[in-house]
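Chain A, query sequence.
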Amino acid sequence: MSVRAFGVLLKARQLSRLGSLCRQTNRAAVWTLRAPQFVEQSQSLAVRCFATAAQQPAGGVDKHEFQAETRQLLDIVARSLYSDHEVFVRELISNASDALEKFRYTALSTTNESELAAKDRALEIRITTDKPQMQLIIQDTGIGMTRDELISNLGTIARSGSKQFLEQLKQDQTNAQASSNIIGQFGVGFYSSFIVAQRVEVYTRASDPKAPGLRWSTDGSGSYEIEEVENVEHGTKIVLHLKTECREYADEDRIRAVIKKYSNFVGSPILLNGKQANEIKPLWLMDPQSTTKEQHQDFYRFISNSFDMPRFTLHYNADVPLSIHALLYFPEGKPGLFEMSRDGSTGVALYTRKVLIQSKTENLLPKWLRFVKGVVDSEDIPLNLSRELLQNNSLIRKLSSVISSRVIRFLQERAKKQPEEYEAFYRDYGLFLKEGIVTSTDSAEKEEIAKLLRFESSKSETGRISLEEYAKSVSEEQKDIYYLAAPNRVLAEASPYYENLKKRNELVLFCYEPYDELVLMQLGQFKNKKLVSVEKEMRNQSTDPAALEDFGQDSLLRSELDSLIPWLQDQLKGQVAKVKATTRLDTHPCVITVEEMAAARHFIRTQSHQLPEENRFALLQPELEINPKHPIIKKLNSLRDSEPELALLITKQLFANAMVGAGLAEDPRMLLTNMNALLSKALEKY
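Chain A, predicted structure.
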């Protein structure tokens, strides 16, 4: 299409009603500092293209040398600075967005309207792909550049015109909104073009009515040319002549995918071959009160690439201690296999001024919050030169701490305000909260996460209670929170370790998951109350000398125990560290206790198979506590002399049963061998 034909089409569009509406919208945008919000449908924007043919020279050509060690620097930019080729699209779109923001600010601050040309022009970014010519063209209708600005901004690598503009705004101490919309920082984004282009042409015209059209071109070999050309629109147009191996970037679908990934939320319309490519609004920058449930559902599906709904939505903004705009979602669906694995990446994307920096950002949230989806946008985030990697670890840790604390506080609020919904969430994602307690190194954070835990208890057959509810329901004098690990409630209530606490009517938490007791052991205490397993409580009480003076009626005599205990210890030599009597059992003949039952059970499940049996017992140091009132123990004492072989089989079976009851048996099937021998011996007389 020729420039003249384009002008005729533009004139016709301006006479149409649709064009009038668009022009009014853009005029309003010029005289406000707010970045324009996206329209929902691209059809409301007229299709605007531009000629791909070269403009005609209007004067002589000036040849310049770059002001830096350009060949070397261009090689660094093209080969080393960016980890992914496609980010050059993000960089050029960000530059175009900055040019539009500069024009908006200039239009607002200029008192003499005659100083600006075409002030009512549509403020947008236009991208055209040309497969036959292997060209990608990116144009903006922004501020444009003069000859001097071309030389200073493009002739010197690592000189940022946007950064200079921001410094000027700071000196003027005006318009914070304008500065917040400027993206560029380092002055190298333009040179990312050479990742994919063998030659670059820039057509530009400043906003001064008298400014001429200029063409800047280079092949990156160390020099560039500037010449005046005719029929150049106000703004800047970049023509990339692509390398053969990078011809994919002349494909419309490929560019659309890159725009969606990196630049979907840039504040100005992006037209790709005449159709708007960025239609989704940046909800995280909007007022939380103005967003709808449907908007959140659509946005959640977009950023998470899933088809479920968000269960909870956390939308908040903060200025201190860091500038943060966050929109976080808690999925409704159950966690997938990748989320269950700690090797999976976090689901939160990092943006700076609406431009994607990292889609899955490590260290932005701790690993245990990897199920959270959403966006975090912060102007304070320190980036490296390529705007891809984070630097200044202390700031990143601070940002992570702020967001993590807000997420924990939000879930605590949901637990109080929406208990049924939180209970459903806890069933699906409670494992991640427990992982947070185990992996966190901050004791205060551990306790805050612990407020989110839920357990069944000995006094509530339906529903679960929190640690806070436990602490409030017991007296201040009670310094311990008791918990019992068992596969289910039936086994928990039948546990020999629970007998004495049940008799005392103590409140006990029942932990059904194999890792629950490890979590509570890592937590250590809550609200200044120690978390104590019932096995630990039993072992501690059994060391009290006063408790061993009177075993009650119908029990073995002290003299009989003094004889039985050494005999048992001799029969179980190499398996038990100690045998002793206890008064804390009623219906069970004996139990096994170890110093740290949770750690011992974890060892049996994960590492004991690597050691021979004698080494396992040497590490565990189990103690066998017998009930001197139980009929089996009393009968065993009499069988020692009359039936020594049967007494030995009974002793081994009692020990094996106790090990299974404690969860310390490596393979319960080993019980069968001794059990069959015991049955055979017992039935010999019949």
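The CA atoms of residues 135 and 241 lie 5 Å apart. The longest strand covers residues 57-65.
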